[in-house]
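Worked Example 4.2. Consider the chain below.
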Amino acid sequence: MTGNPHSEDRCSASDVRHTLSVLMPRVKEFWERPLQDYASAAYDVSKFRTGCFVRHHAMDLLRRCIERAARRSGYDAEDARNAGFQILASPVMQTGPHCLLLIEPDAFYTHLFSLSGLTAHGREWHITYHAATVSFSEKAKKGPGWLCLDGEPLNVFGLPRSRMDSLSICGWSGPYRFALSNAKGDPAPNASAARLLADLPSDDFPSAAEAIRAANQALWRNKLPFPTKLLQLDDMDIADLVADHLEDPQSWLSARLIGGKVAESILDAMDHLNAGPWQGWVRRTTDFFWRLEGGRIIPLRLQDNLLRARSSFEVKVRPEILAEALRQRAIVPSLYTVFLVTSILPGVRVLGGCRQAIYSPLMRYVSAVGFQQSGEQDLLTELRGDDRPGLWGHRVLKPSGGYPYSELELLQGAATPLGQFAEMSLLQSSGDLSSFTRDPIWANLSEHISTGAITANSPAWQWSGS
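Applying the procedure from the previous section yields the following structure tokens:
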């Protein structure tokens, strides 16, 4: 079948660049400059300083979470402390890729972009959050459960379609073991797959997210010739972080958000956004948490001081009860709750993809509604002063026809592609912007920008710090 390769586009790449330049004016100056300049700017953040108790407390809990995650990943106590110190010295986190194997193209080139920015500032740690509340297949033969090697789509864990389509990779529904099998079920059917499988852990894992985390750690340490250390936070790390907040009466989450009008005001603000031109960006897919059951995530709805699922499950909205449910993995944080405790409350810049670049600032807006409801004027002042708290930082490097597995070998040799990519302009490095142009919600946003229905001065955008 022949035809226009961009026939699925809903808007043009120039529309996307114009929209980004309007909503994030500082991006505009980088389109014609080397990617290295943009990477350096993405990681150019001020050392964490605040006189706001809520923010200081949230950052201290995040620092402890990072240290705990580092120890869980096999680093010693000194390394773990250094990872915690870096979030204070450089409060920025890569949150773009979902929980993908390191050599999946969407993940690999984003990690290279981050390495470029981290190297520019001499940072020791690459601190990431990879969302795991997603299914194995995001679309046909693409997502955390798939990997293409030597032109052949491979099933990462050798799972049947029923499990690929319905289960979440964060679910404890294992055991999971790497297989890299083809459509016939043959494991490692080509040379690249056989070499990669030999480099991946051979253990059984309770969840796919745990398996991917361990595999990435092994590939990073053994295949990438950089001194930068990788630290991956997943939804279980964040579940424990939220539990830390809920068990601490000094936390804003425990003292203000749970069980009062603040939570309702935030949910109402989300509904209000969805009734206007920002429709679809911050959706109430679930209320603050997901129910984790049988390897699946199930929406919860806040009603009468209870969080209820469609099944018979319900949990009282009391800090100690929610904390216990999180520790037991009966519930996991929603994406909004993840960003609340990792970015909005502690004041950490997050680098994300085509949708996060918009929904992250809007999450700040609905949070500000809650902060106003709870009378947190110091925190609102901090929020207004944040410098670019959310930036486009995923798929800003998207080479046409890139093949990460072969480039892993180049990275270990004398000639590495990192310098070559760094010299490309942002306009060149970001390619056709297909993740934007083929997304109907981006077409709607571009249209609203062109008609003036949305501007950089729109009330919901006032907390973007752009």
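The two ends are 43 Å apart (CA to CA). The longest helix spans residues 53-72. Compare this with Example 4.1 before moving on.
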